[in-house]
């Protein structure tokens, strides 16, 4: 016979009428807990952020973080505290995994803005998700040019927030900007 106990966890009761004994097997379904003090975060370009969670479950959890935006969805990394860590190449230099399930992301870029999902899977295979929203404030750059009597104003976003000298040192002389708006006045 199976019935639900007070906290909606299944309880199995086995009876043997010949010997008059009862064995109670308390099992917990959905025993995964993901606690977080803040699910909506705002940071600036080049800041660091910690997606703070406190994960609990039966056994050693498998923690998986995913990034989603309007343009992309990609895996960030998977780890089991004290067992293994596997961070994808795109994030390897910027992600710090924590044993409680939290994840640190350093040197933020405008394109890091989006939705982050942590999936916690326990040994038996059940899982639970929690989502976070990250807004990244970037620096807008206005370029004003006077071209033969015309004023050209270009509004851009600095995605990398690095100086030209730093980009040249890394061998990246191409423009890291995204043009948002162009106005031409005479």
From TrEMBL:
SMART domains: IG. Residues 38-137 form the Immunoglobulin domain. This is Immunoglobulin domain-containing protein.
